[in-house]
Design a protein that fits this description.
Elements: H1 20-29, E1 35-36, H2 48-59, H3 72-86, E2 96-99, H4 101-113, E3 119-124, H5 130-136, E4 140-145, H6 155-165, E5 169-175, H7 187-197, E6 203-207, E7 230-235, E8 248-251, H8 254-268, H9 273-285, H10 289-310, E9 314-315, E10 323-327, H11 336-347, E11 349-350, E12 352-353, E13 364-368, H12 373-398
Parallel strand pairs: 1-11, 3-4, 3-5, 5-6, 6-7
Antiparallel strand pairs: 2-8, 7-8, 9-10, 10-13, 12-13
Length: 399
């Protein structure tokens, strides 16, 4: 291998590091008897009727290329799903692209809209994938720390940031219900932010992959208020426990999806045909599949929130997704990576360091409660024991 060739690769790659989340998950996997509350993946299996649809697809030899935008049947099912669920109206023929998960959707959108020097506004803490994709496009992430406002972007902070960065702002990214905090935006929040954003000629990228997992009020999309500016990202991964099937989608006005379709087509050609047939079944006949999972997640949410508060952690009660973002108590290791490493080795519970999610995340930990109640009960028992032991150590030092 000519090592000199590495230096000739895309220079932005030198600015990127492998995913902190995956690295920490892998690093703790070898600890004996570890309980992992790390990865954001439903612990439910894909519903049976969806699996049966995939089997029928295979038996029917649906093993050829699908149209790049997705099968017409799946796009129609997605259009109907969004209309009934969120009052969003997208023409299945021209305004929907089926992608290889929401991950490809994020890449396709950012690659398509960004030019060198553009700026992308990101309320933090935030799912970190948006950051490297922005950097690879030679654009600049602009972080807006929401930790002082209950992890919700305030209209005041948005206006201040837009005024500061001016015409260089190309887009803003929203992800709600939010990974990692579990916070969501209520209708009044969305409406207030939309009033500001409609005055600016920028893209609104709205990642709504957790839209079916809200506890209480129904999810409200930014596209309901600003359809001409908003690019909606969603998929079947969380709503139907289909992470491994890799079915996401992008919805936007036709003029925008036409351009997005170029990068999408040149990147993957099309997503797996049998997986699209399964997703069609999910959105046509499993419209409420997420409801049963949501009931269980809510029980787990209530339990983990209660137990973490008992153990001395401050946390905002999640309103969606399946994460709890907890503040490390005073007097403990405050650097989140060091705290999580210590917790993993001494209590045998793995959670994700909050510092992985950008400004406002340091000093916190993210717990995924997409795990069985038995696992969560044991994990909370171990965390409580870890805290009690540390408190006892502090007391001994003081005496």
């Amino acid at each position: 291998m000519r090592h000199s060739l590495v230096g000739k690769m895309k220079k932005e790659l030198a600015l990127l590091q492998p995913s902190d989340i995956l690295l920490f998950d892998q690093a703790t996997s070898s600890i004996p008897d570890i309980i992992k509350l790390t990865i954001g993946e439903p612990d439910f299996n894909t519903p049976e009727h969806i699996k049966e649809a995939a089997k029928r697809s295979i038996d029917s030899n649906h093993s050829h290329y699908a149209p790049p935008a997705g099968t017409p049947e799946l796009r129609k099912a997605i259009s109907n799903f969004l209309k009934k669920k969120y009052d969003l109206h997208y023409n299945p023929d021209h305004e929907i692209l089926v992608t290889a998960g929401a991950t490809e959707a994020i890449y396709t959108v950012l690659t398509s809209i960004l030019n060198p020097g553009d700026k992308v506004l990101m309320p933090t803490p935030i799912f970190p994938l948006y950051i490297p994709d922005t950097i690879l496009a030679k654009a600049e992430p602009v972080f807006m720390d929401t930790s002082s406002n209950g992890f919700v972007l305030s209209p005041e902070l948005l206006e201040e940031t837009l005024e500061k960065h001016g015409d260089a702002v190309k887009a803003i990214i929203f992800n709600f219900p939010t990974n990692p905090t579990g916070v969501t935006y209520r209708r009044e929040d969305v409406k207030a932010l939309a009033e500001i954003l409609k005055k600016h000629d920028i893209f609104i990228i709205s990642d709504e992959i957790y839209s079916e997992l809200t506890y209480g009020e129904r999810h409200v999309s930014m596209a309901e208020y600003l359809p001409d500016q908003t690019i909606v990202l969603n998929g079947a991964s969380k709503s139907h426990a289909m992470t491994g099937w890799r079915i996401g989608f992008i919805c936007a006005p036709a003029a925008i999806t036409t351009e997005l379709g170029k990068i999408h087509q040149f990147t993957i050609t099309s997503t797996t045909t049998m997986a699209q047939d399964a997703a069609q079944e999910a959105f046509e006949n499993g419209m409420n599949d997420g409801a049963e999972m949501r009931v269980e997640y809510e029980k787990r949410r209530d339990f983990v929130y209660q137990e973490m508060r008992k153990a001395g952690f401050e946390c905002v009660k999640p309103e969606g997704a399946f994460y709890l973002f907890a503040k490390i108590p005073d007097g403990f290791i405050q650097k989140s990576l060091d705290f999580c490493t210590d917790l993993a080795h001494k209590a045998r519970v793995a959670v994700i360091p909050g510092g992985s999610f950008g400004p406002g995340g340091e000093g916190y930990i993210r717990i995924s409660y997409a795990a069985s109640m038995d696992q969560l009960k044991e994990a909370m028992r171990r965390i409580a024991g870890y805290v009690a032991e540390k408190e006892e150590e502090k007391g001994s030092v003081q005496r």
